[in-house]
């Protein structure tokens, strides 16, 4: 934590200067005695003793002031975090409740009513099949995104327990990926069942998939998801590769490689790891010759 110099009182600065002056004098005299520049005497020993006695009050006054400032800074930081957390909880409440009606009730009812009133023949006559399909798929995507936001913002609530259910992991991921532009680049084997929060788990896996495709210089980019054994799910890509050390570093918020040409915020991997941690799923990177193999213990 950085303590601004201006917060340190003039008295403390004077005390620190006195303490430094006393110790400097003590050091010079002791050095002169050690190197026989001056001869030892009773007065030099008395001088050294006096330096120690005088140094302590001045230095401890400075330390006390510094600790008080540190304590005040910590309190200010905690107050700021409480305020920001309050804002976050309020924003989460708006997302969870106020947006729910529009995304999951009013717009779906409006689309259904429009289709019913027009009828199939009128829709074909006006060539509205494609626009209505886009609206329907866009609405489904918005509902999917809303569900992810809803589940994620729930995590800021005090005492929140992650809602999970036992689902077929392959079916869940296929349903999530079918509306993405890169679904054909992902191969998913049978993954069995696991107790997961469907929306958040898919968000985390999708982030790893997109990283495998994004940081990839191969002519044919591909991600394979399969079980390595009864407990470990693997996400394997043919990209640039990543070591465990690099993974741990990039998992920190706002951390990105210095020579990285691709755009990004440096938050995706951090959020992904946080979601899997909420599930109790350890994540690591295996050493492989080409690409990256990420291992997630889901059972």
Explain what the structure shows.
This protein is of the alpha+beta class. The chain folds into three domains: 5-84; 95-154; 165-297, Heat Shock Protein 90. The protein is built from seven helices and seven strands. It has helices spanning 10-34, 42-125, 129-154, 169-177, 198-214, 244-250, 268-279, and strands at residues 165-168, 186-188, 193-196, 223-227, 232-237, 283-286, 292-297. The strands form two sheets. It has a five-stranded mixed β-sheet with strand order 2-4-5-7-6. A hairpin with a 4-residue loop joins β4 and β5 (232-237). The longest helix has 84 residues, at 42-125. It is elongated and about 110 Å long. The two termini are 40 Å apart.
- What order do the strands of the largest sheet run in, or round the barrel if closed? 2-4-5-7-6
Number of separate strands: 7
Average pLDDT score: 86
CATH superfamily of the largest domain: Histidine kinase-like ATPase, C-terminal domain
Structural domain tally: 3
Strand content: 5-15%
CATH topology heading of the largest domain: Heat Shock Protein 90
Outline the biggest β-sheet.
5 strands, mixed
Amino-to-carboxy terminus distance = 40 Å
CATH top level of the largest domain is Alpha Beta
Low-confidence stretches: none
Number of discrete helical segments = 7
Instruction: Tell me, briefly, the overall form.
Output: elongated
Radius of gyration: 31 Å
Helix fraction, binned, reads 55-70%
Q: CATH architecture of the largest domain, please?
A: 2-Layer Sandwich
Elements, N to C (H/E)? HHHEHEEHEEHHEE
**Oligomeric status:** single chain
Structural class: alpha+beta
């Amino acid at each position: 934590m950085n303590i601004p110099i201006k917060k340190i009182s003039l008295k403390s600065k004077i005390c620190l200067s006195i303490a430094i002056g006393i110790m400097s004098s003590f050091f010079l005299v002791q050095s002169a005695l050690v190197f026989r520049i001056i001869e030892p005497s009773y007065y030099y020993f008395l001088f050294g003793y006096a330096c120690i006695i005088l140094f302590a009050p001045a230095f401890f006054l400075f330390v006390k002031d510094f600790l008080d400032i540190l304590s005040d800074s910590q309190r200010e930081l905690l107050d700021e975090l409480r305020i920001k957390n309050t804002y976050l909880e309020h924003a989460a409440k708006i997302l969870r409740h106020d947006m729910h009606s529009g995304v999951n009730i009013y717009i779906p009812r409006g689309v259904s009513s429009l289709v019913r009133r027009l009828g199939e023949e009128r829709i074909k006559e006006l060539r509205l099949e494609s626009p209505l399909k886009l609206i329907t798929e866009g609405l489904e995507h918005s509902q999917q995104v809303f569900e992810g936001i809803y589940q994620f913002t729930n995590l800021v609530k005090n005492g929140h327990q992650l809602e999970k259910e036992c689902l077929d992991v392959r079916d869940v991921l296929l349903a999530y990926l079918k509306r993405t532009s890169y679904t054909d680049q992902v191969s998913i084997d049978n993954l069995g069942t696991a107790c997961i929060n469907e929306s958040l788990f898919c968000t985390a896996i999708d982030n790893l998939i997109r990283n495998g495709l994004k940081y990839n210089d191969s002519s044919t980019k591909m991600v394979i998801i399969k079980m390595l054994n009864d407990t470990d799910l693997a996400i394997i890509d043919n990209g640039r590769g990543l070591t465990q050390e690099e993974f741990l570093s990039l998992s920190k918020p706002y951390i990105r490689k210095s020579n990285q040409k691709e755009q990004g915020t440096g938050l995706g991997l951090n959020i992904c790891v946080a979601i899997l941690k909420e599930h109790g799923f350890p994540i690591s990177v295996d050493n492989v010759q080409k690409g990256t193999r990420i291992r997630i213990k889901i059972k």
